[in-house]
């Protein structure tokens, strides 16, 4: 998903029955018999309001806190804050948020249900090889293809980096399976944790492939997890929830001048539902397709703390060893701690685990256009916290500052000013990114062929076709006849669809890139055969009371950049003809993983588009 800086996280491999019976003794941070205290009180309301103000957020938050009392009853608090939608409606405990990658745990649990299913013939295990379950499975390396297991996919260690820009919204799992063999791997098998959404799409294909009566993944999860756990406000059917009015809208900051004030409001814009889906789900369901209310997040947290039981009727829905497996580290997500108070972090399946000021925490985050979520639990202290944000610009920091404040309060720790830490982190990262990007040299070298001859069609078997069209420069009378016919319509739509993005004093190519997260690509000339490549998402501007339509009456779309470190396209010219271009900086590798090395551009690129 559109995972930002502090990316979304996930699997496990040891004897779970043993870990169940050997759960460490509960650490007592309360006096024996002392009941838990409420957290979401009026002081907390003020705190949340201050945070929203400080970040100039026009969005809102849903918060759930569950704590188990010594008498085994639960203290459940759920509350909404701020705005859910552009029409000014407020967040309530019933507002649904896209939980993004927090959906991955449902994928792992559905695989866990298949593994625990004694009627399944043949039985499968965490170590079953994908090639034995899905004969068409293939990655771009024969050893990896034959040896990859369920565990490898869940714990992000196949060697495949994200490649999040290659899939379309309407791809089917079988389309995806047909394409994965063409994607370049960035490390050897099991060498490194590298977050990967595509592998969760592959896992989500297992229920329907192994049980003929299962129509699809989404129905399997509904019947076997949502319904039996009583999660009635949790669904893949985002279209129904949107129609009902309960789905929050992601709110982002258009025209934010970060140099002027990085925490400015910009022009707030609401995003359309990024994932229109029915109850049958789609290719992204396993990796990130669920919407949920915070009222249900509370129930979900209770079920997790109860190791898979329905908190109301006590029935086991997910076998406890499956819950434990997911929460047990297999891969190393962060080998060194980010903060003084946190430990290094390990990843299980749809869960990562680390410690905070000496307490074990199991959590995951989610990030999709306009939505950031965190679902955390302290399994030994029976504390669960969920914070959902629809501030698509700074939600990931706002939600963490709020989460830590709750944690510090519940444990009675000296409060840390997490808000100030995140604000300086944001500022620091912005400064770093801006200083690391070089501006175009003042006297750039021309490419070794004319710009016109670069325009045209290219193809990568994994990513698909791309048609580059040259945008006319200032005062230039472009001869459209020199470009493919398909460019006419695209060039006409650029001013409307991609406002504020084209610098007409730099030779720039534009292409449609109609995938799940993006709509276009632009390649701006840098120097010689190098171009700066940026993936863009063009969003329709919705008329909302939050942003009066008269603000910019002639604008119908706004543009968001896909946050890439620095993507570069290098064209290759052979004998006066362009043979293709390589892209680097776009495959989304794990920490510390470098771009490919090689003799030539094709080998050195992460994705190679050959001239058609
Ligand atoms: C278990 O497997 C049987 C036999 O394939 C199937 O009918 C049943 O639906 C499965 N149940 C679950 C929860 O997977
Ligand atoms: C690996 O990918 C390349 C380029 O996409 C393709 O030509 C090749 O056939 C693939 N190899 C395998 C083993 O799938
Ligand atoms: C952003 O703000 C800075 C500092 O005020 C200013 O110099 C710059 O021109 C602004 N950029 C845009 C695109 O308005
Ligand atoms: C945003 O927040 C900053 C402080 O964080 C404040 O100085 C500024 O006035 C606020 N408002 C806008 C519209 O930027
Ligand atoms: C980032 O740069 C701005 C402007 O130079 C400066 O005011 C700010 O303190 C810097 N932030 C950090 C965290 O270094
Ligand atoms: C443009 O690409 C070049 C070459 O990769 C890189 O050095 C530079 O930092 C990029 N500039 C921007 C603004 O992204
Ligand atoms: C909208 O109007 C402004 C100001 O007149 C102009 O600068 C801008 O180019 C127009 N945008 C479109 C998409 O026509
Ligand atoms: C457009 O590009 C020129 C040449 O590189 C540069 O001087 C100028 O600042 C750019 N304009 C904007 C708005 O980025």
Automatic annotation (TrEMBL):
Signal peptide interval: 1-20
Beta-lactamase-related domain boundaries: 58-393
Xref: SUPFAM superfamilies: beta-lactamase/transpeptidase-like (SSF56601)
Key words, A-Z: Signal
Residue intervals passing through the bilayer: none
Source superkingdom: Eukaryota
Family: Belongs to the peptidase S12 family.
Protein name: Beta-lactamase-related domain-containing protein
InterPro entries (alphabetical): AmpC-like, Beta-lactam-related, Beta-lactam/transpept-like
